[in-house]
Design a protein that fits this description.
Blueprint lengths: L1 E6 L3 H12 L4 E7 L2 H8 L6 E5 L7 H8 L5 E6 L4 H10 L3 E4 L5 H16 L9 H27 L4 H25 L8 E3 L1 H12 L8 E6 L6 E3 L1 H17 L1 E13 L3 E11 L11 H9 L3 E8 L2 E9 L1 H7 L1
Helix pairs in contact: 2-3, 4-6, 6-7, 8-9, 9-10
């Protein structure tokens, strides 16, 4: 079942969208609201599969909501009146996946959502090799940035001197390249690669950078890496995936405005990675992202894995990986 969140400033239109989507198989409308402030608060704590928004909210324009949440790893559909091509191009450039007209029966909206349901299901197949929500989010973000780049380039053809559009184009291209690099690390068979000395500090920084596009916009994500870390013997792609899983897991239980801290330090013969979440709310629904993959990666690298509750509103995962020199001596 694909979860949908509906936002529209007009009561009748909002009710019509909910009723239309309730007739689409495989769709569950989780909640509906009228304003940007409430929607932003909900989306900071919960990420649906699909966001459907109108162009007019009770306290803002729909494009402001799209810009605010476009990096959350969900599909965004905008429903609005028949507008000029420039209007819906602006929505697509802001991060929306589709702009549909609000016809009487909302048939176009239903068709678009059916297509998204099929697409989302096809990108999340069951597999012996668990790719998980991380790779799914990266795939979605990658295509979103490519789509945004395509739209911005079309707008630049009409206004080649628009510096703001040039900045959007560069940002979309840079992020797409970064996400593709991360994605390749998830889909290739890392376990078949021979272990090599890895600079864990660089791996952690890359994983935290990728996590910023997949976590709530109000979440504070910080990283602190001690200098002069010894290399660890392992596969960089697997270790990057492990850190990303830990950060996403920590972010899911935080309240609006919570914090996730990533710290990397060393002992005499090991490197320590601590991922701590501050502001954990036991009432926040979680998607079920487990730590099985992260734990398995740590064990394959001859490390240790510890989960601890530091205080009522804080939890931490501590990973210890032996330095490459110490591991080679042990072997």
């Amino acid at each position: 079942m694909m979860n949908v969140l509906v936002v529209d400033g007009h009561t009748d239109e909002r009710r019509a969208i909910v009723e239309a989507l309730s007739r689409v198989p495989g769709v569950s409308v989780q909640c509906a609201m009228s304003d940007l402030e409430t929607a932003a608060g909900v989306l900071a704590r919960y990420t649906p599969d699909i966001l459907v928004t109108g162009t007019e909210l009770a306290d803002a324009d729909g494009i402001q909501l799209v810009e605010k949440v476009r990096r959350r790893g969900m599909s965004i559909v905008v429903v609005g009146p028949t507008s000029s091509r420039d209007v819906w191009l602006r929505y697509l450039a802001a991060g929306a996946d589709r702009f549909v007209e609000s016809d009487h029966e909302l048939a176009e909206l239903q068709d678009v959502v059916r297509g998204l349901v099929r697409q989302l299901r096809s990108t999340c197949p069951e597999s012996p090799v668990r790719v998980g929500r991380v790779a799914t989010g990266l795939v979605h973000d990658f295509y979103s940035y490519l789509h945004a780049l395509e739209v911005v380039l079309e707008l630049l053809e009409r206004a080649p001197s628009d510096k703001h559009l040039w900045g959007e184009a560069r940002a979309a291209l840079e992020q797409a390249v970064s996400l593709m690099s991360m994605l390749m690390g998830h889909v290739r068979d890392d376990q078949a690669r021979a272990p090599a000395p890895v600079a864990l500090g660089e791996v952690v920084r890359a994983a935290v950078t990728a996590a910023q596009s997949l976590t709530a916009p109000r979440l504070e994500l910080s990283v602190e890496i001690a200098g002069e870390l010894p290399p660890v013997l392992g596969v960089a792609g697997e270790l990057e995936r492990m850190v990303l899983e830990l950060v996403l897991n920590a972010s899911e239980g935080t309240r609006n405005g919570g914090e996730v801290r990533v710290a990397v330090t060393r002992t005499a013969d090991a490197v320590l990675v601590a991922v701590t979440s501050v502001g954990v709310d036991p009432c926040v629904p979680r998607s079920g992202l487990d730590l099985g993959m992260a734990r398995a990666i740590v064990e394959r690298h001859s490390g240790t894995f510890l989960v601890a509750s530091c205080e009522p509103a804080s939890s931490s995962v501590l990973v210890t990986l032996p330095a490459s020199g110490a591991l080679e001596l042990a072997r």
